[in-house]
């Protein structure tokens, strides 16, 4: 088989989002690297492009855009005096400022900021915020209101799929990729085309190579998966390339981009026989849970200092991951000391009620159970017209006595402490000069090509047939028992690759 990787940027050919293709190209050796082997994985990554507006900064207030919440001009445009809001006093510790912010909100306003499409509270100068971002192997377009491409930023550097980069076993490379991705995110943020929170990397341990999301992960070894997460997350988040110094308050350390390790935990099935990812109950022994499924996440949080962990759809020994206090509040936040927030995989709380029918709970009961277990943010399915459960049922959960307002406050503090560290309120001077020229640079494209080279493994090269001479070889034939392109149909679940191969 032939593995071909094309680092894609503005003007480059692209495949449909979520697809994987074999593309026969040899137009530019600088932008296109052809590496072949008799047995090697196909890894072609593409970045989609869609429409988007232009402007400076993602925070829109009265028709103008801003890069930070606490801008005197922004408050003036709202008829407010910024000096009257202690949460905008940059001389105060982050924690004190967040307490002031949360204390100004009514219960109704608090609940409306517990979902991935947080509504803000104009009354106190708080803008809306879209928490969802994706950056597994490059900045991904998530649509209107979030990270998006357009005339100002037509596209971003697309690095090899994670399974390919992980095969390089090069921690320096993994960090370089994370650093490049975060630089492009921050540049796009300054241009009003991105947010600052990204739910990447995927560090689930692969148990079956047919799993449709295996290509998103670093593979089957818990230690390698963990080390990948540590290097990628550190590079995504660290502004100066170093973690907090001895004795430093990690909650006060500014971060470049928020990186989220997902999906916690024991998630490696999308559809198999009668099981699917929404109703699957992973029966895991304690030793296997600790040594296999929890280990990469522990490394991600403890050593990588990730600012976010995402819980998964599935149940673990009967209890949904997103309502499991032992997993969330006791382990992630307590034992591992997470300095950030915990978010649900999108629609996980509704899944407890609609699909798993866990304990016969209704929306109010599931919302209370998840938040009490340690879940801070509920990602809903807004693209299906469904509101997240925290926003929909949080108010009733408090009014019915199933949830305390102080528990809502605690979740909001975790969320807004993260945004404080990201400079969402104050900006980060070292990063404010980044712009369009820092996206899809020649350096980043060469890094993507080098990552593809390092991840390829040549098993055999009988008779020195490789590398192929692109001046003589103009077409390739893929032969095997899985009938060429239809090989993708053996993948298990809704994350299998679509049939978009081009030969």
UniProtKB/TrEMBL annotation:
InterPro entries linked to this entry: BXL, GH, Glyco_hydro_3_C_sf, Glyco_hydro_3_N, Glyco_hydro_3_N_sf
The keyword Transmembrane is annotated on this UniProt entry: no
Gene3D superfamilies found in the cross-reference section: Glycoside hydrolase family 3 C-terminal domain, Glycoside hydrolase, family 3, N-terminal domain
Superkingdom field: Eukaryota
Signal peptide coordinates: 1-45
Keyword Membrane (UniProt): no
GO BP terms, alphabetized: arabinan catabolic process; xylan catabolic process
Keyword terms: Hydrolase, Signal
Span of domain Glycoside hydrolase family 3 N-terminal: 154-414
Gene Ontology molecular-function annotations: alpha-L-arabinofuranosidase activity; xylan 1,4-beta-xylosidase activity
PANTHER family: BETA-D-XYLOSIDASE 5-RELATED, SUGAR HYDROLASE-RELATED
Protein name: Glycoside hydrolase family 3 N-terminal domain-containing protein
Species: Aegilops tauschii subsp. strangulata (Goatgrass)
């Amino acid at each position: 088989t032939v593995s071909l990787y094309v680092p894609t940027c503005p003007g480059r050919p692209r495949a449909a989002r979520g697809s994987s293709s074999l593309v026969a190209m040899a137009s530019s050796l600088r932008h296109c690297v052809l590496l072949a082997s008799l047995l090697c994985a196909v890894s072609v990554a593409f970045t989609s492009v869609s429409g988007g507006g232009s402007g400076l900064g993602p925070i829109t207030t009265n028709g103008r855009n801003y890069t930070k919440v606490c801008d005197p001009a922004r408050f003036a445009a709202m008829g407010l005096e910024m000096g009257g809001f202690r949460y905008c006093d940059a001389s105060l510790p982050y924690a004190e400022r967040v307490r002031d912010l949360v204390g100004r909100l009514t219960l109704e306003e608090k609940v409306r900021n517990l979902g991935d499409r947080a509504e803000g509270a104009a009354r106190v100068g708080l803008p809306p915020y879209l928490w969802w971002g994706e950056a597994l192997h490059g900045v991904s377009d998530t649509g209107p209101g979030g990270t998006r491409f357009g005339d100002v930023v037509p596209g971003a550097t697309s690095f090899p799929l994670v399974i390919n980069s992980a095969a390089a076993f090069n921690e320096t490379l993994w960090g370089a990729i994370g650093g490049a991705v975060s630089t492009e995110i921050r540049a796009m943020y300054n241009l009003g085309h991105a947010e600052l929170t990204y739910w990447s990397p995927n560090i689930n341990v692969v148990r079956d190579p047919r799993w449709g999301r295996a290509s998103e992960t670093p593979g089957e070894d818990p230690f390698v998966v963990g080390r990948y997460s540590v290097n990628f997350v550190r590079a995504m988040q660290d502004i100066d390339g170093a973690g907090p110094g001895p004795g430093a308050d990690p909650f006060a350390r500014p971060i470049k981009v928020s990186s989220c390790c997902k999906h916690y935990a024991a998630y490696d099935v999308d559809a198999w026989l009668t099981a699917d990812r929404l109703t699957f109950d992973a029966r895991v022994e304690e030793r296997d849970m600790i040594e296999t499924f929890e280990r990469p996440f522990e490394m991600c949080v403890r050593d990588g200092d990730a600012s976010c962990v995402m819980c998964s759809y599935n149940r673990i020994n009967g209890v949904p991951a997103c309502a499991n206090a032992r997993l969330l509040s006791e382990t992630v936040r307590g034992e591992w000391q997470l300095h950030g927030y915990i978010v649900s995989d999108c629609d996980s709380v509704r899944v407890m009620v609609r699909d798993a029918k866990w304990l016969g709970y209704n929306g109010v009961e599931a919302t209370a159970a998840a938040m009490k277990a340690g879940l801070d943010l509920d990602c809903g399915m807004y693209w299906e017209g469904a509101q997240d459960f925290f926003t929909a049922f949080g108010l009733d959960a408090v009014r019915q006595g199933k949830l305390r307002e102080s528990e809502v406050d605690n979740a909001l503090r975790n969320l807004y402490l993260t945004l404080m560290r990201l400079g969402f309120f104050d900006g980060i001077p070292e990063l404010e000069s980044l712009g369009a020229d820092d996206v899809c640079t020649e350096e980043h494209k060469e890094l993507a090509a080098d990552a593809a080279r390092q991840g390829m493994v040549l098993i055999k090269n009988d008779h020195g047939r490789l590398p192929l001479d692109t001046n003589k070889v103009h077409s390739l034939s893929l032969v095997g028992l899985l009938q060429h392109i239809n090989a993708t149909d053996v993948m298990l679940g809704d994350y299998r690759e679509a049939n978009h191969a081009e030969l």
